[in-house]
């Protein structure tokens, strides 16, 4: 196979923390961008999509490994890429024309040529007549057209896009997407490859020739496959389309399991490089989990996650932590892109509050290592109290400072609800209320670590 335009070999990224720990955001990863392909990168929030994009675009140096541009190390190569951002990132004090000319000016192009090239690309993206307007006079969709024009005017070999349609309303996004695809397919633009970071699964399946899904903590490739069997324009209702959407949902909702690829041509094997002691607690509240389970019962005990998100008008990223949490606690299963309530989940949703707490307590102790450890530690101390710092130290070996705090907050929230312990915020200590006999007996029955 020909050398890809961009090839990342075992790239990883660490960020320094105020404490001496370095946090690994991307674990060693191989990835390439070939001529002629649109690659979409999906993954939950914080999985390192933007970090990876920045390394592939030569904007950020990997902490380990190497990125190659046509086979040469990217930092010494003469690269030709541009990036479209979600936030448009226009210069507000410049007109549309001046914004588009800016990158050519930076490259030292003469004024006449610059103007000619900019006029042409403004025409191509439908901004004819808006040359003298300022960004604030334009709608979001028109501003992003300026973003595209500015990126395309340099005739980039690779066009990077970081959530380019997320800030736009649905119709505008749809419109811009199909226009971009048309420019690409008709080769109106000389761009050789497109790399798109997105949250939107359908968008990825609509546009991409290849889809990569990242898992997090640290970021790693969970699946990387071709969508070559679907011809453009793609039909959202076609069975092959929905199969791929479902498969990606499953990959995103089951961080611990690798679902089977739908039987499409040329699916590539999958890697999962995670190694961790603590499972990542999804940041969901017990009330939210109960609410989700009640809804699942209303839908007959089984429903499509996609439909559920739609019904609730939830972004999938807001719904996933609740689904993940219910799943982690054994209240839900995800099967074929559907959420299916388990018998314990049903009992939990239908019980009165005391029984709910009891079921939550049993599930939390069975499935959540951190809560089990806090409970055990408290019971082994004669004064029935342990400083939070003790657990922070263990967590921050695995999570960033910010995530460590969030993990602890979620654990406190769940533990309090389950009446496993109290938390004294002024002293930053966990404490055990004297009368916690029920919890005590459950802990003593708890399984081995
Ligand atoms: N400069 C930085 N210093 C420290 N940590 C950082 C820095 N940039 C990103 N991170 C952390 O790296 C992780 C990955 O961030 P990144 O923005 O790449 O993820 P993402 O998948 O693009 O997320 P989102 O979908 O929310 O945009 C996050 O936990 C983030 O907090």
UniProtKB/TrEMBL annotation:
Gene Ontology MF: a single term: ATP hydrolysis activity
Entry superkingdom: Bacteria
Pfam families for the chain: AAA_assoc_C, ABC_tran
Membrane-spanning ranges: none
Signal sequence extent: none
Domain called ABC transporter: residue spans: 6-241
Keyword terms, alphabetized: ATP-binding, Nucleotide-binding, Transport
Alphabetized SUPFAM superfamilies for the sequence: P-loop containing nucleoside triphosphate hydrolases (SSF52540)
InterPro entries cross-referenced by the UniProt entry: AAA+_ATPase, AAA-associated_dom_C, ABC_transporter-like_ATP-bd, ABC_transporter-like_CS, ABC_transporter_ATP-bind, P-loop_NTPase
Classification via PANTHER family: ALIPHATIC SULFONATES IMPORT ATP-BINDING PROTEIN SSUB (PTHR42788:SF13), TAURINE IMPORT ATP-BINDING PROTEIN-RELATED (PTHR42788)
Stated name of the protein: NitT/TauT family transport system ATP-binding protein
Lineage, top ranks: Bacteria, Pseudomonadati, Acidobacteriota, Terriglobia, Terriglobales
